[in-house]
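As a warm-up, study this chain.
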Amino acid sequence: MARILRRLRLEIVALGIFAGLIAPRVYADVKLAFVDLQRALEETEDGRTAKNQLKKLFTRRQAELDDKQEDLKRQKEDLDKQRNILSKEALQKRAEALQTGLVELQSAYMSYQKELGEKEAALTKRIFSRMERILRQIGTREGYTMIFDRNAGVVWAPGHLDLTDKLIQLYNQGAGAEEEGGGGAPPKAPAKAAPTKRSE
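Now compare it with the structure written out below.
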């Protein structure tokens, strides 16, 4: 499957070059840009809030796992100490209880992993949806043909094509919120400070 996709990509590139040679005017108006959605997520106010919420949940769940693990560790140590004085039946019962505890610990770990994944998806879905609306507005207003996510395949591009700082600024100013269902937060007043541009 990967080979097919690679071959298809090469054929598309070759076709694009050929079409550019025979019909340069058709492609003269193509305007492309890219955005780093992951960096935008990390640097918007909502993204930082979501990250803090996930970090608190992770810390809480990790503490619970640590407590369960320490309890099992103590049980095993006690069992090892009393192995020679316990009856065969009592030893088997304690060993079975320890095994049950281990299974429950593993189950709790899997459950917490799933919970964190679902929580992250729920928190970021709304943010990315709003970013998509902002980028659609930018693309329409400024005449972009396509806007790519840098993390999805853009290996290199000139810095002036990077819309990430603009996306972060507009997001933090409240752009895109007015289209959210349930009455999103009203747009904030535009920031007076110019956005910081990353050095190339």
